Every structure is written in C-alpha cells, then in structure tokens.
Amino acid sequence: MFQTITDSGQVICRRMRPSDLDIVVRNEELSYPNPWSKRVFLDCLRAGYECWVLATRDRILAHGVLSAAVGESHLLTLCVHPVARRQSYGRRMLKHLLKEAKRLGADTCFLEVRPSNESARSLYYSVGFVQVGERRGYYPAETGSTVREDALILSCSLL
User: Fold this and answer.
1) CA–CA distance, 114 with 69 (Å, rounded to integer)
2) Which among 30, 42, 78, 116 could bridge 64 via Cys, Cβ 3.0 to 4.6 Å?
3) 7-27 pLDDT tens trace
4) In sequence order, what are the beta bridge partners of 5?
5) Residue 105, SS3?
C-alpha cells in the first residue's frame, strides 16, 4: 500500500468495497462515453478480481480492476476522476495493479486502449507496455455515430 498527503487528506490505496460502487460508477460516467455499470463492478468483486481504489476519507480519486490467472493478467479498467488527473494517481494505481499481478504469479499484463486516448497510451508506454495487436471495432460507437473505435492491444512483461 502506498500513501501520499494531499490537500484533501491522506490518499491510500485499498481494496474496492461494494459501498464504493456508486462513486466508482459516477467517476466512470464522468470519464468514459461507455462506462462500466454497477453490475459489472459487482461481478468483478464477486469473481475475486483485483479491484482497488485510491481514496481519501471522503473521495475516490482513481480505481482499477485487474484479472490474473495462469501466468497472465489483464488490466480491465483504470480510471482517474477528471479533477484528479495529471497528479500521478493513474500511474500510482497502474503500478499497484501490476505489483498485484506479479504477486499473483503473472509474468505478463495485457490491456486494450482506444487509439484516441492519448494520455492513457502515454502512461502505458511510459511504464513499459508495447503494442502487440489490434482489435477492429472493439469499442462501441459514441452517441450519434455508427463508427466503432478499434482497440490497441498492449502488453507488458512483469519479470
């Protein structure tokens, strides 16, 4: 666990709880055109995925979900509240999730990212991810559009 002091209090990394989900979903809605639902997060918690938040006493600044099995891990979502961006919370959450993946025996982590999400791509590349593929039409079309966005498949060695 890592801790930092901010103006709004101590920031800790802790496991996500069902009681966090309304705030987590709201953060997703503020961040993504097709956010995860509360049901999806509940399913991740029930499945035993690595679900974590970076939080102060009264705010959730970032959250992430990762699955790990048979030597591999998959970063399923990473989100930073819009007002908390550009303060290293995404990097801290990502590094924590990669550490958890390694602890669980994974030697590789995969993820999908929108080509249009330049800040996320920059973060992932800066910690060692490289592009290993592409998924055509992976992301749903934005409201008012029929064009689905491709996904870049990135991979990072945890060894």
Assistant:
1) 24
2) 78
3) 456 999 999 999 999 999 999
4) 10
5) coil
